[in-house]
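Checked the freezer inventory, then went back to the computational side. Two predictions to log before the end of the day. The first one is the construct we discussed on Monday; recording sequence and tokens without edits.
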Amino acid sequence: MMILDNRGLEPPQPMMRTLAALETLPKGETLTIINDRRPMFLYEQLDELGYLYETKEREDGSFEITITKG
């Protein structure tokens, strides 16, 4: 499992970092990202690429998204 903390970055940096990390992720593995906001445009990309994902809002108002490479 890989964790990528994207808090404090301005768009489109969080999405670019996430997509780059997903390219290196082995099939069946998961990537967890932490973002300041819900990554609406990333969801569209994940759907197109066939990734599974789950989003949880954290107590500090940030979002934790667990992405599985299928």
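The second is the one RB wanted added to the comparison set:
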Amino acid sequence: MPVTDTDRPRIESRSRRLLAYLGHNRDQLFVDAAVLLSWIVASAAVFRWLTLPQWAHYLVLFVGIAVYAKLTPAWERPYRSPD
């Protein structure tokens, strides 16, 4: 069942909203960081090993990150902002 905006608590403090947002999305944050770091290291190793041009490496990095961002779900906001 989808969560509606009225089901989410209202948090007034900006710092508490940030902590709630990061806490709610913590697992996805770690997965995203691990996947992207692995992509960067693996592509750098392959491009260095094959001595391919640096501009091609940047292109592959950009395309890989863009594809990953399109395929993964967006992070969720677990609160309502003050009106």
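For RB: The helical segments are 14-24, 26-49, 54-71. The CA atoms of residues 24 and 72 lie 16 Å apart. Let me know if you want it refolded.
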